[in-house]
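Example 3.2
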Amino acid sequence: MRRYGKHTDEDDIRSRPNRRGNRPRTNIRPKHEDAAEGMVLTVDRGRLTCLVDGRTILAMKARELGRKAAVVGDQVALVGDLSGKKDTLARIVRIEERTSVLRRTADDDDPYERVVVANADQLAIVTALADPEPRPRLIDRCLVAAFDGGLEPLLVMTKSDLAPPDKLLELYGHLDIPYVVTSREELETGDAADRVREFLAGRVTAFVGHSGVGKTTLVNALVPKDRRRVTGHVNAVTGRGRHTTTSALALPLAGDDGGWVVDTPGVRSFGLAHIDPSRVIHAFPDLEPGTAGCPRACSHDEPDCALDAWVADGHADPARLYSLRRLLATRERTEGD
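Structure, written as tokens:
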């Protein structure tokens, strides 16, 4: 079917402006130089809540961004209705370059890499000293992700009224990783929040931890104006907590020094499929100096590995070497699949 009549004139043909004359206009993306700057606070089913000039804005990702997704902590550029009024929707047209990224996969066999938080300065690894029992292997995995993503780690130990922190401090206390020990009573009085807050002032801190360790309870104590739903009970049979935080959320800390807390969903595993095995050693600063005597391309799990002598001489705890080798063995199995 002909679109135009038999006798057409140039004026009858609609032309589209084209800057270069060799590409369709739809491929020329606007620069949006007048876009407003904002920060992503949370993401829920394709809708992003952003903070723009002190106002909370609901936004969606512009089609021109393609598959690139914005996550909590991202600095973004927005256009459209920025009033923050009900039933308004802005568009995110640009995601600024990230200074740090906390990534994880569901497990070490999962190829899908998920960005949890962007632009965080610090990763607070929250672990209970009892109920549920501490999981050093999970802590080690979080440390690997923190060092690999450019975040400084902070170890927060909860429920010290149920068990002493001595065992964990033997493993991590000498690694120059800052730590805080809290009890349930201190959480209720606010003393624990005050001590943790000293490490958070002026920084963006992502909180991560096993379900049931008291992570969200601590966040609620730090940011009482924006309380999240209290965590569920720990299962007496499995020793696991129930997930009650279902999405990451950035919350502002009160005070002159400012700072942000990012509460993330509780984790039962922390996959590292996205991390090169050669970089895992960087998360073990007590073992890394011992690799100086290793043969070239040492896997750190072979007869000539110098780490065995390093640990035997008392430079590091044998449990740390075991943890390193367990991580590396898991990664090697993943690479071979």
